[in-house]
Amino acid sequence: MNAPRHIQTFNVEWNGIHININWEPQWLNLKANHYDMAHLDIESTTPERAALPITATGYLSHFTSSETVASFGGPVEFVLAWLDEAACSPAWQAKAAASRQFALF
Fold first, then answer.
1. Each residue of 73-97: pLDDT tens digit?
2. 72, 42 contact by CB (below 8 A)
3. pLDDT tens-digit readout, 58-68
């Protein structure tokens, strides 16, 4: 028999973008089989599906270990740290600068 899934939902704001984070620390109960497999489901909601430095589509499904996420202080802190780090990339910096400038054509 399958164990019930335990998914936690968090809503955060990062740089004016509202983000929904679904966190399943024991994805498909694989820990019973000695696998530390966790799942993050990240989606920008306002603006809807706004690009983020970790996903151009505004949605990302990410598998990791619950231990890694816990080392950051939890799923919210993990995602925010990931966004902040990825936002330092030259590609994201150029995209952010272009979105702030008025274009005539």
1. 999 999 999 999 999 999 999 988 8
2. no
3. 999 999 999 99
pTM (2 decimals)?
0.88
DSSP state of 56: T
* 76 Cβ contact list (under 8 Å, min separation 6): 10, 12, 21
Pair of tokens at residue 57? 């589509």
For 66, the token pair is 């619950």
**Cα separation, 53 vs 67, whole angstroms:** 23
Asked if residue 1 has pLDDT above 90, the reply is no
Helix (H) or strand (E) holding 96: helix 90-100
Both structure tokens of 38: 């966790």
Q: HEC states along 64-76?
A: ECHHHHHHCCCHH
